[in-house]
Amino acid sequence: MTKTTQPENPFVSIAINIVLPSVILSKGNAYLSPVWVLVIALLLPLTYGVWDYISRKHKNYVSLLGLVNTLVTGGLALMGAEGAWFAIKEASLPLLLGILVLGSSWTKKTAAEMLFCNPQVMNMEQINQALSERGQTLAYSQLLKQTSIWLSFSFFISALANFLLARFIFSPIALELESTVREQTLNEQIARMNWMGFIVIAGPLTVFSGVLVYRFLSRLANLTGKPITGLLTANK
Questions:
Q1: Where does residue 194 rank: exposed (0-12), middle (13-18), buried (19+ CB within 10 A)?
Q2: CA-to-CA distance for 154 and 16, rounded, in angstroms?
Q3: Which residues on adjacent β-strands are paired with residue 122?
Q4: Does the N terminus or the C terminus of the chain have fewer Cβ atoms within 10 A?
Q5: CB–CB of 194/22 below 8 Å?
């Protein structure tokens, strides 16, 4: 009997990856040295990401890129990098994802198909049968391509927004300050980038993605002649 893998709890993920690191970076300096505060704050999402990857036995390339992003953040902070370096780092991950998603639009397996056409969620057997019977297979391929292109735009917008927000938050730190004060100030800047990036960027992009998913399902419903609810596995 195959053991069913429990889906990730989004509230736990947000708490460990966003809320707790931000609180530690903002308040931890009163109890520990800035370097240890930074290390502990970065270990939380790093440990959670590794545990999630091992426990679910599932390759989530977005999560893996997130782990690399966390390591780069820690590396830059420990090296004392400031300003433009963090802006470039914050923009690099969504930019890379956008390029990969855009490039997939001209492959046999588009990003839209990988993300939206999960057999555990979508009744792909009946969908493919309906598309074939109605002669809409080519139109379906075009829909996947167009959706992937639109999806890539969301990542490019995120990259630009991350860059601008990071340039605003990571202001120069006076060189004449003591090293501990400089480290503490940098930790506070990282904390602000952490929660502000989630609210200012992730929120609007989530809405954009939701609209994109609804548009995709609506178009697919027209191509198959089925209602949106009829496309889901729950309605087999």
A1: buried
A2: 24
A3: 232
A4: N
A5: yes
Q: What is the mean pLDDT of residues 45-53?
A: 78
Distance, CA of 182 to CA of 152 (rounded, Å): 37
Q: What is the DSSP letter of 234?
A: G
Q: Is 174 left (phi over 0), alpha (psi -120 to 50) or beta?
A: beta
Q: Using CB atoms within 10 A of its CB, is residue 124 exposed (0-12), middle (13-18) or buried (19+)?
A: middle
Under 8 Å between Cβ of 101 and 114: no
CA 210 and chain centroid, separation: 14
**Chain center to CA of 80:** 26
Nearest to 41 by CA among 24, 65, 19: 24
Burial of residue 207 (CB within 10 Å: 0-12, 13-18, 19+) is exposed
pTM of the model: 0.75
Q: What is the pLDDT of residues 81-126, one digit of tens each?
A: 777 888 888 888 889 889 999 999 999 889 999 888 888 788 888 8
